[in-house]
Specification:
Blueprint lengths: L19 H14 L7 E5 L14 E4 L5 H11 L4 E7 H7 L1 H10 L4 E6 L2 E2 L5 E2 L23 H7 L4 E6 L3 H13 L4 E6 L11 H7 L1 E2 L11 H10 L4 E7 L6 H4 L17 H8 L7
Parallel strand pairs: 1-2, 1-3, 3-4, 4-8, 7-8, 9-10
Antiparallel strand pairs: 5-6, 7-10
Helix pairs in contact: 1-6, 3-4
Bound molecules: thiamine diphosphate (TPP) and iron/sulfur cluster.
Iron/sulfur cluster binds next to loops.
Length: 290
């Protein structure tokens, strides 16, 4: 398998230079390296420029609703636990309208990977403030500059009990591929917050800005991803501007294991209930002709 096997040949409509191109390539490369059969993979996205990603993959895909990629992705996984399921969307999807899904998916620990393509702005709606926009960022919805304290994805994720949390950068593709592979390999819910610049509507948090501000875990002095105290403290010290695997906890039971799904066949192999005959019997007394 190579990266091209996972591309359906549809040309992305993203602006040339958008960070999302690299995220798409990275998912395709990660899938190729892990030799995931195309029919064993599903990419479920929300709504946004980022949400288009599921439409460019030559795997199963589902372009869902704004902020709702996670409920769909978790359902896909629970219906067919043999699939590798990747959810994807923007920072608006993950940290605004879909924030409660993000936090509860972390707690639930279904074995899927969530890629948040974080450009610190709403791209598709042409440049609105997002919950991770930095204070002072001028957008169409905040012409005088964003005022609210930005959401801190890393601290939120670790506070909710994330078993895997990493951060990547579109311009560091080799590293991003490895992070996605590690997220997919992780048994449980993995959240990867990817700094993926919007070159059209965010003129502040550009590629150069991230190159200047982002540090690696090593540079931040964080050499043990299993050390929660260190992970929390470096996230605070760097104000979240770091990349790499920030926290990983192995051996946590997944939702599937807790709910005894582990030893059952995938739901798609279980005969449909109720059968047509049973359904007719149960509903007979509600029918006018019954
Ligand atoms: C329920 C609902 N509310 C609002 C919208 C309008 N809307 C579409 S995309 C979007 C935000 C996009 O920003 P983000 O999720 O960060 O993704 P990006 O476009 O930056 O990749 C909004 C508010 C919608 N489609 N559905
Ligand atoms: S508007 Fe921004 S996020 Fe959307 S495709 Fe263009 S560069 Fe990417």
């Amino acid at each position: 398998m190579n990266m091209k096997d996972y591309s359906n040949g549809v040309h992305p409509t993203w602006c040339p230079g958008c960070g999302d191109f690299s995220v798409l390539r990275s998912i395709q490369l990660a899938a190729a390296h892990l030799e995931i059969p195309r029919e064993k993979m599903a990419v479920v996205s929300g709504i946004g420029c980022s949400g288009r990603i599921s439409g460019y993959m030559n795997t199963y895909g589902f372009h869902s609703v704004h902020g709702r990629s996670l409920p769909v992705a978790q359902s896909v996984k629970l219906s067919n636990k043999d699939l590798t399921v990747v959810a994807a969307g923007g920072d608006g999807d993950a940290y605004a309208i879909g924030m409660s899904h993000t936090l509860h998916a972390i707690r639930r620990n279904v074995n899927i990977t969530y890629l948040v393509m974080n450009n610190q702005v709403y791209g598709l709606t042409k440049g609105h403030t997002s919950p991770v926009s930095q204070v002072g960022l001028k957008t169409k919805s905040a012409p005088e500059g964003a005022q609210d304290t930005p959401v801190h994805p890393g601290l939120l994720a670790l506070g909710a009990g994330a078993s895997f949390y990493a951060q990547g950068f579109s311009a560091e593709q080799e590293e991003l591929v490895e992070l996605i592979k590690a997220g997919i390999d992780h048994k449980g819910f993995s959240l990867i917050n990817i700094f993926s610049p919007c070159i059209t509507y965010n003129k502040t948090n550009t590629y150069d800005w991230f190159r200047k501000h982002l540090v690696t875990c090593e540079q931040a002095g964080h050499d043990d991803p299993e050390n929660l105290t260190s992970a929390l403290s470096v996230l605070q010290e760097t104000q979240g501007l770091m990349r790499g695997i920030i926290f990983r906890k192995t051996g946590e039971p997944t939702f599937e294991e807790n709910h005894h799904l582990a030893n059952n066949p995938p739901m798609i192999e279980v005969p449909l209930e109720p059968t047509a005959e049973k359904f007719q019997r149960w509903t007979a007394r509600f029918r006018l002709d019954g």
